[in-house]
């Protein structure tokens, strides 16, 4: 039986990182060690360094395939199998074979070689992996039709990441080491942009990191390793829903931040019956989950009745290195009876470091949380009544039946009375019944009668058993009653919160929808969200002072201050949810707190939206004011002064000009007036643009025709511009007149700054539903930190001669582009210079 060969994959983030070169390099190393190595298929793409690496290796002939009148070459799988080498080099794992080939995909060819016992070295780019193909298309705008199933790559015996920084890839591209010179500028402006390459690199690193994590988990499982391996720092913080949670989260976040790249995970252990055993609050958990996610962590919930075991199982499952817990909130008396979750977890943690964090709730107990689930006051009073009056009545009855009922029967009847008391009033009334029953049994029915001594040992045993059983039964019945009430409350809370989430998602305005849902659910007469005014002075009467509070939102009866309502839920020091109609029941407070926290989130989102909307127009008005002042003070004066000087010279008495001189002076006047006209037109257009009065008539427009018209507008300067248009017909949504004007402005700048012998270039490409028109020059360029200044009106960034323009063209061009739903952004030209990118929405073909 033939043993399957091994697959080694060289994974790259993008073309040109050197995958094929690395594969050939490894082939040479193996050949030098005496291994039989052949090249089954290598694509050099005309790269000199790659072709040089092929030299010295045996290259098997390819198979020629004819398809639709064209001839293609593919790997000859049969020839490779017949050659029977130990190691085969096969490039481009995701390649699709020409129809009529032995297999549809090259990875299927490779599987045949592996089945034959050969070791295969191959290459693949991350964009060809099936699982992330759609993500790559969204990032780059380029669909990848050739893909390979992730499982094929994951089965590889080894995956080597061939990594290269985006800037290094672009330098290789600019030097001609990846594509032919005529394709360099278009590639740099489209697929090989820095943002694209950075995103692809991160995808490759994350995909490979997942593969490494899977391998580590598989190895640990196969070897039966349960202890933690500190291959990567992971900090787990345990949350109960108590008020100390925020302190624990921030402490855990600080621990994670000390180890660069450490993961922060928060976990809450819930009972498998859905009830809470920690006295926690759902509202606290909601707020704490938000905090964890804001700090870059993840929130998890696991189910288990044994909290320490559940915590340790989760921590070991995620290979955690540190576990953060809060010191117990139980009372000191309770801590004497059992060690608590923190101590139990620390004792069984093994190599996981356990941090017990102190907080303000230590040793305060859980009375408040439990009290929310306790039986009502009326039930407890009824239980006490039954315990006293009922036990007295039972005693009177049994005294009359003393001759016909034995002591054992008396014990059973008193035990039944204890159960009834526990069902009616809970634990404490039942304990009263236990004490009374024990005393009455001893005094009236255990010989000697009417005394506290007991003559018979059996009677002593019966009374002791009664006492123990009665206490156990009363505690069990009370616990069952509590759990029943907790279950009903949990179900009601879940239904309410589910309705809350639905109302928020459906509502166009989440804040009023939240308050309306709260009011309807709990039958309040009104619900008002108040925020303390920043200028409100501290005073004892602030709770009743409407001037100190701002009404954020209100439904039903409006309230102006917290003191005007029947109930208040505070969120921080500045926000208060005030309710009117009836007091807030203790058992409803947790759910109302969840409403309040959600309302604060909606309020902050609303405030941020309002601030952003208000700041935009103010900034634009200020920018326009500055621009107009600059125009009046400098750029309007310059062409007027030139024209006036020329006219003054012509009218000067006693001066005779030749025909050539007169023509030159008149041309100077005309040029100055033309510049003045363009400036005034630009200023008017900028004013209309800012006022929203500029006429924009968007329509499907051919980008090729618009480029041609812009070049004609330039006149002689447009003849030397290099134009690279795609073969497909591209249309954009925009105003053709405004698009032409933008391109003319960009081309004038590019022509002005381009050195002799290096004319500007226009490159047009489409991706991700957009068309990019790049105007490229090889001039001095502009530092990246000054790119924003390029679009400020009347900024020429180094131009000092008055013939270079007024510096308004780029500002107007960006405004026109944005008015058409597009954008205008600068970029660096590889090798030096500036590239201006006009992006417009593509019309679907």
Automatic annotation (TrEMBL):
GO terms for molecular function: protein histidine kinase activity. It catalyses: ATP + protein L-histidine = ADP + protein N-phospho-L-histidine. The keyword Metal-binding does not apply. PROSITE patterns: HIS_KIN. The keyword Transferase applies. Residues 631-844 form the Histidine kinase domain. SMART domains: HATPase_c, HisKA. Its EC number is 2.7.13.3. It is a multi-pass membrane protein. Keywords: ATP-binding, Kinase, Membrane, Nucleotide-binding, Phosphoprotein, Transferase, Transmembrane, Transmembrane helix, Two-component regulatory system. It is found in: Cell membrane; Membrane. Gene3D superfamilies: 1.10.287.130, Backbone structure of the membrane domain of e. Coli histidine kinase receptor kdpd (1.20.120.620), Histidine kinase-like ATPase, C-terminal domain (3.30.565.10), HUPs (3.40.50.620), P-loop containing nucleotide triphosphate hydrolases (3.40.50.300). Its main location: membrane. The chain crosses the membrane at residues 381-399, 411-440, 460-477. PANTHER family: SENSOR PROTEIN KDPD. This is histidine kinase. It comes from Kineosporia succinea.
